[in-house]
Amino acid sequence: MHRVAQGQGQGVGGRLLDAATEWIRGTGRTSVLDEDDRDGVAHAVYLRKGWRIVGEARFDWQQAGAPPVRLMVLPS
Known about the structure:
By secondary structure, the protein is of the alpha+beta class. It is globular and about 40 Å long. It contains two helices and three strands; from the N terminus they run H-E-H-E-E.
């Protein structure tokens, strides 16, 4: 049986993401992230909030056969 994490689907992650990106913008920087999302939930949130994929990469810490990590940026 699949268990849903407490708070999932209530916008908690989106609000945390908004707070972090607002703080980063306040410092004059651009928000970037490496996304290693297996189920697509986080990826859908990022896209809905305006994040754009700018590339893909493979890292030493990834398991063999894992899909590449998406490199994303939130345009100003």
